[in-house]
Design brief:
Blueprint lengths: L1 H25 L7 H12 L18 H6 L1 H5 L4 H28 L2 H12 L2 H5 L7 H21 L4 H17 L4 H17 L4 H30 L5 H6 L6 H14 L4 H9 L9 H19 L14 H15 L3 H21 L12 H9 L5 H11 L7 E4 L4 H6 L2 E4 L6 H6 L1 E2 L8 E2 L2 H6 L4 E10 L10 H7 L16 E6 L4 E7 L4 H10 L2 E4 L3
Parallel strand pairs: 1-2, 1-5
Antiparallel strand pairs: 3-4, 5-7, 6-7, 6-8
């Protein structure tokens, strides 16, 4: 009878995960920042190294392991977007499996483990970021799998050498995925070392286990950091300096964290967790306490860097841990059936509320919804993917043509033109000397026009200016309108613009045309204009 139940339950578990995968696939999307990683991977595959522009060395990515993984489809001439979706979905499945295992271990019930992954997998943010093209779900699965290995050792009171070695490799992978995974290591390593010292074993055996925990981590991460120092001249990515070391807003970070709890109607759960008191904070719940500590550390980190401009992407790594705590509160701490059912209903309705309403109250801090992130790349009236492909084909993928854009993802990736990232994530000069534009993460600084002139930029795309072909009959391009449109605002005087500068209208599809600011003349650009019969207009001064 027990075997029959187990087999039946396993089929239910398999079916549940399959349904959640289908839900994640239905929520799939691609965001522009993913193409930054793809560009570094593409340059590596083509023999230029992990660089943004051919011949330049800057680390404008924060996800080395993911960038390394994306070399696979590019080497095999496969679509990196589709491959990133497949890999993200695989990581999503691993996250669900280890969330189920961890919840079952903590709550002592397979049924609770199953309900936990249903609530987690149905969460719109967690489900959507199974794709997106970035390392988000990879980091999440490394977080929860590392925590499961730790908890299993705590529950079995066995700290085997093989287990410590495995844990070390998982932490190494997490750090190679994102350096901020150091917060995960900061929670796990002290607990593991303390537990090893508590064992009644000779000191030599304890030392071997600690070495097994630390040596792979030291060798892998240490070698990687040394390579970074030798190749880039720094162990920290350039994005660190533009985000964390630039002007940030903790208030924006607080709002970002608060908005997550508010939008999903999860606000009661921190209070329920705090009210658990001794029931939670005791020796039998070391794992849950570790989860709480990591969630608090991670939330503090989010607040410090000012949150993010993407819809709750930074929350994803801790969501499996958060939903395990929620499951413990609902199914173990709460004994009253009516309250338990009300809390489950609150979670379900809260997730629906978020999906339907998010974006209506985020304007003060410019948090882009997942749908908005997708529209930049795919929608006809923006179509950054299409722009990149047209520019690449139109200019024969010529590295000698220099383009400047704030949409530094799909456009540089598909065009393969030498590209200046006007927001500075991939440009050291902008990071240090660009205009301070505010506290939006990743958008704190903007390239100065004088820098673009110094770099002899041929094509200024800025924030892509797309016009409907129905509106192209008006061919007037006043200088002030041109400057305003290309993110340069009033800081540039008309007389600073070279007299030879013009406007090019480049058709992207049957309905839309891209307006490009042609600053410095180039033989290759002039030939492309003639070859493609693009319209060129003077700038009215």
């Amino acid at each position: 009878m027990s075997d029959f139940y187990n087999n039946k339950f396993n089929w239910v578990l398999f079916f549940t995960i399959a349904v959640l995968v289908l839900l994640a696939w239905s929520n799939r999307f691609i965001q522009d920042d993913a193409f930054i990683s793809f560009r570094y991977s593409d340059n590596f595959v083509n023999g230029h190294g992990f660089v943004w522009n051919v011949g330049g060395k800057i680390e404008g990515y924060t996800n080395f392991l993911w960038v390394l993984a994306m070399t696979i489809p590019l080497y095999l001439k496969l679509d990196p977007v589709t491959f990133s979706f497949a890999l993200g979905i695989a990581c999503f499945v691993v996250s669900l499996i280890f969330t189920y295992k961890t919840a079952t271990l903590i709550c002592g019930s397979k049924d609770i483990g199953l309900l936990t992954i249903i609530l987690l997998g149905a969460n719109y943010t967690f489900s959507s970021y199974a794709t997106g093209g970035l390392e988000t779900q990879l980091q999440a699965c490394l977080f929860v799998s590392s925590m499961f290995i730790l908890l299993r050792s705590i529950h079995t009171h066995e700290w085997k050498i093989q287990t410590m070695t495995l844990l070390s490799f998982l932490l190494s992978a997490a750090l190679l995925t994102r350096l901020d995974s150091g917060l995960l290591a900061a929670v796990i390593i002290p607990i593991a070392i303390f537990a090893i010292f508590q064992e009644g074993l000779p000191s030599s055996r304890k030392l071997v286990k600690i070495i097994a925990l630390g040596l792979p981590l030291l060798l892998l991460v240490g070698s990687w950091l040394l390579w970074k120092l030798m190749f880039y001249g720094d162990i920290l990515p350039n994005s660190y300096y533009i985000k964390a070391a630039s002007k940030t807003s903790p208030l924006r970070g607080v709002y970002f964290v608060y908005l997550f709890w508010f939008s999903y109607w999860l606000i009661p759960f921190p209070f329920l967790c705090a009210s658990a008191g001794k029931k939670l904070f005791n020796k039998s719940n070391v794992g849950l306490v570790a989860f709480v500590v990591l969630i608090l550390l991670w939330s503090s980190y989010i607040i410090k860097v000012g949150g993010d401009f993407m819809e709750f992407r930074f929350m994803v790594p801790i969501l499996p841990l958060l939903f395990i705590i929620i499951a413990w509160i609902v199914f173990v701490l709460i004994q009253q059936k009516q309250i338990r059912n009300a809390l489950i209903l609150l979670i379900v309705i809260g997730s629906l509320h978020h999906k339907v309403s998010f974006g209506m109250s985020t304007k003060p801090y410019q948090i882009n919804s997942i749908n908005q992130l997708q529209t930049y790349v795919k929608n006809d009236d923006q179509n950054w993917e299409g722009i990149g492909k047209v520019l690449g084909k139109g200019f024969n993928y010529d590295h000698n043509i220099i383009m400047a854009t704030g949409a530094a993802g799909a456009i540089p990736f598909y065009s393969r033109l030498t590209s200046i990232d006007m927001w500075g994530l991939n440009d050291k000069w902008v990071t240090e000397h660009g205009y301070i534009m505010g506290t939006t993460p990743g958008h704190q600084r903007l390239a100065k026009f004088s820098y673009l002139l110094k770099r002899k930029v041929n094509l200024l795309v800025g924030h892509p200016w797309m016009i409907s072909k129905a509106d192209t009959t008006d061919t007037r391009y006043p200088i002030n309108d041109v400057l305003r449109r290309f993110l340069l605002k009033s800081r540039v005087k008309p007389e600073e613009v070279p007299l030879e500068s013009k406007i090019i209208e480049i058709p992207i599809d049957q309905n839309y045309t891209l307006v490009v600011f042609y600053i410095f003349k180039s033989k290759a650009v002039d030939e492309a204009i003639q070859r493609n019969a693009w319209k060129v207009y003077p700038i009215l001064r």
